[in-house]
Automatic annotation (TrEMBL):
The active site is at 67 (proton donor/acceptor). GO terms for molecular function: methylglyoxal synthase activity. Residues 1-148 form the MGS-like domain. This is Methylglyoxal synthase. It is an enzyme of class 4 (lyase). The lineage of its organism: Bacteria, Pseudomonadati, Pseudomonadota, Alphaproteobacteria, Rhodospirillales. It catalyses: dihydroxyacetone phosphate = methylglyoxal + phosphate. Pfam families: MGS. PANTHER family: METHYLGLYOXAL SYNTHASE. NCBIfam families: PRK05234.1.
Length: 148
Protein backbone atom coordinates (compact mmCIF):
# COMPACT_ATOMS: atom_id res chain seq x y z
CA UNK A 1 0.00 0.00 0.00
CA UNK A 2 1.46 3.38 -0.96
CA UNK A 3 1.88 5.89 1.84
CA UNK A 4 0.76 9.48 1.41
CA UNK A 5 3.70 11.88 1.10
CA UNK A 6 4.88 13.60 4.26
CA UNK A 7 3.46 17.05 4.80
CA UNK A 8 5.82 19.96 5.47
CA UNK A 9 5.91 22.19 8.53
CA UNK A 10 8.22 25.13 9.29
CA UNK A 11 10.03 25.86 12.53
CA UNK A 12 11.56 29.21 13.43
CA UNK A 13 12.69 30.76 16.70
CA UNK A 14 14.20 34.08 17.62
CA UNK A 15 17.47 33.71 19.53
CA UNK A 16 16.10 33.83 23.07
CA UNK A 17 13.37 31.37 22.12
CA UNK A 18 15.63 28.76 20.50
CA UNK A 19 16.11 26.77 23.73
CA UNK A 20 12.33 26.77 24.22
CA UNK A 21 11.69 25.53 20.68
CA UNK A 22 14.34 22.84 21.03
CA UNK A 23 12.86 21.62 24.30
CA UNK A 24 9.40 21.57 22.73
CA UNK A 25 10.66 19.72 19.64
CA UNK A 26 12.38 17.09 21.80
CA UNK A 27 9.19 16.61 23.82
CA UNK A 28 7.27 16.10 20.58
CA UNK A 29 9.87 14.31 18.52
CA UNK A 30 7.73 11.26 17.70
CA UNK A 31 4.86 13.36 16.37
CA UNK A 32 7.28 15.55 14.42
CA UNK A 33 8.67 12.52 12.56
CA UNK A 34 5.44 12.51 10.53
CA UNK A 35 6.53 15.74 8.81
CA UNK A 36 9.26 17.18 6.67
CA UNK A 37 10.63 20.15 8.57
CA UNK A 38 11.97 23.33 7.03
CA UNK A 39 13.53 26.00 9.22
CA UNK A 40 15.40 29.27 9.15
CA UNK A 41 19.18 28.78 9.17
CA UNK A 42 20.27 28.85 12.78
CA UNK A 43 17.08 27.30 14.10
CA UNK A 44 17.42 24.49 11.56
CA UNK A 45 21.04 23.80 12.45
CA UNK A 46 20.20 23.48 16.15
CA UNK A 47 17.23 21.21 15.42
CA UNK A 48 19.23 19.02 13.02
CA UNK A 49 22.02 18.58 15.59
CA UNK A 50 19.55 17.43 18.21
CA UNK A 51 17.05 15.51 16.08
CA UNK A 52 19.29 13.52 13.73
CA UNK A 53 16.51 11.13 12.67
CA UNK A 54 14.24 13.89 11.40
CA UNK A 55 14.03 15.32 7.92
CA UNK A 56 15.14 18.95 8.39
CA UNK A 57 16.03 21.41 5.63
CA UNK A 58 17.58 24.71 6.69
CA UNK A 59 16.97 27.84 4.68
CA UNK A 60 18.82 31.14 5.06
CA UNK A 61 19.03 32.72 8.47
CA UNK A 62 15.99 34.83 9.33
CA UNK A 63 17.67 38.25 9.02
CA UNK A 64 19.12 37.18 5.63
CA UNK A 65 15.77 36.21 4.08
CA UNK A 66 14.89 32.86 5.69
CA UNK A 67 11.49 34.08 6.87
CA UNK A 68 10.70 35.17 3.31
CA UNK A 69 11.73 31.76 1.92
CA UNK A 70 9.19 30.18 4.25
CA UNK A 71 6.65 32.80 3.14
CA UNK A 72 7.25 31.69 -0.46
CA UNK A 73 6.35 28.10 0.48
CA UNK A 74 3.15 29.34 2.08
CA UNK A 75 2.16 31.38 -0.97
CA UNK A 76 2.61 28.19 -3.05
CA UNK A 77 0.30 26.37 -0.63
CA UNK A 78 3.08 23.97 0.34
CA UNK A 79 3.15 24.44 4.10
CA UNK A 80 0.92 22.67 6.62
CA UNK A 81 1.78 24.81 9.65
CA UNK A 82 4.28 27.31 10.98
CA UNK A 83 5.82 27.04 14.45
CA UNK A 84 7.42 30.43 15.03
CA UNK A 85 8.46 31.16 18.59
CA UNK A 86 8.85 34.92 18.56
CA UNK A 87 10.71 36.97 21.15
CA UNK A 88 8.19 39.65 22.14
CA UNK A 89 10.74 41.66 24.14
CA UNK A 90 13.61 42.19 21.68
CA UNK A 91 13.54 44.41 18.58
CA UNK A 92 14.51 42.52 15.41
CA UNK A 93 16.35 44.10 12.46
CA UNK A 94 14.14 42.14 10.06
CA UNK A 95 10.85 42.93 11.76
CA UNK A 96 9.21 43.68 8.40
CA UNK A 97 10.03 40.12 7.24
CA UNK A 98 8.48 38.66 10.39
CA UNK A 99 5.38 40.74 9.80
CA UNK A 100 5.23 39.61 6.16
CA UNK A 101 5.45 35.97 7.21
CA UNK A 102 2.60 36.31 9.69
CA UNK A 103 0.51 38.20 7.11
CA UNK A 104 0.96 35.63 4.36
CA UNK A 105 0.18 32.80 6.82
CA UNK A 106 -3.08 34.55 7.68
CA UNK A 107 -4.04 34.95 4.03
CA UNK A 108 -3.35 31.30 3.21
CA UNK A 109 -5.11 29.91 6.30
CA UNK A 110 -1.85 28.42 7.52
CA UNK A 111 -1.91 27.62 11.25
CA UNK A 112 0.74 29.63 13.11
CA UNK A 113 1.98 28.99 16.63
CA UNK A 114 3.84 31.93 18.13
CA UNK A 115 4.26 30.47 21.61
CA UNK A 116 4.63 27.07 23.15
CA UNK A 117 1.05 26.69 24.28
CA UNK A 118 -0.25 27.35 20.79
CA UNK A 119 2.42 25.03 19.40
CA UNK A 120 0.86 22.24 21.50
CA UNK A 121 -2.59 23.01 20.08
CA UNK A 122 -1.42 23.27 16.47
CA UNK A 123 0.56 20.04 16.59
CA UNK A 124 -2.36 18.22 18.17
CA UNK A 125 -4.66 19.65 15.51
CA UNK A 126 -2.60 18.82 12.43
CA UNK A 127 -1.96 15.26 13.64
CA UNK A 128 -5.62 14.60 14.50
CA UNK A 129 -7.30 11.89 12.40
CA UNK A 130 -9.20 13.39 9.48
CA UNK A 131 -7.62 16.83 9.73
CA UNK A 132 -7.19 18.65 6.45
CA UNK A 133 -5.96 22.19 6.07
CA UNK A 134 -8.55 24.74 5.00
CA UNK A 135 -8.29 26.27 1.54
CA UNK A 136 -6.75 29.71 1.28
CA UNK A 137 -8.96 32.67 2.10
CA UNK A 138 -11.60 33.44 -0.61
CA UNK A 139 -10.36 37.02 -0.76
CA UNK A 140 -7.47 35.65 -2.85
CA UNK A 141 -9.89 34.48 -5.55
CA UNK A 142 -11.77 37.77 -5.33
CA UNK A 143 -8.49 39.57 -5.78
CA UNK A 144 -7.54 37.44 -8.80
CA UNK A 145 -10.97 37.99 -10.37
CA UNK A 146 -11.13 41.72 -9.70
CA UNK A 147 -11.91 43.96 -12.61
CA UNK A 148 -9.10 46.32 -13.48
O1 LIG B 1 15.31 35.48 12.88
C1 LIG B 1 14.68 34.48 12.76
C2 LIG B 1 13.28 34.52 12.38
O2 LIG B 1 12.79 35.82 12.16
C3 LIG B 1 15.30 33.16 12.97
O3 LIG B 1 16.40 33.00 12.14
P1 LIG B 1 17.53 31.97 12.54
O4 LIG B 1 16.88 30.65 12.73
O5 LIG B 1 18.48 31.95 11.37
O6 LIG B 1 18.15 32.49 13.80
Amino acid sequence: MSQSPKRTIAMVAHDKMKPVLLEWALENKEALKKFNIVATGTTGRILAENLPEHSIVSYKSGPLGGDLQIGALISNDELEALFFLVDPMTPQPHDVDVKALIRISTLYETPVACNRTTADFVLRGITAPGYTKRAAHPMIEEYVQRSV
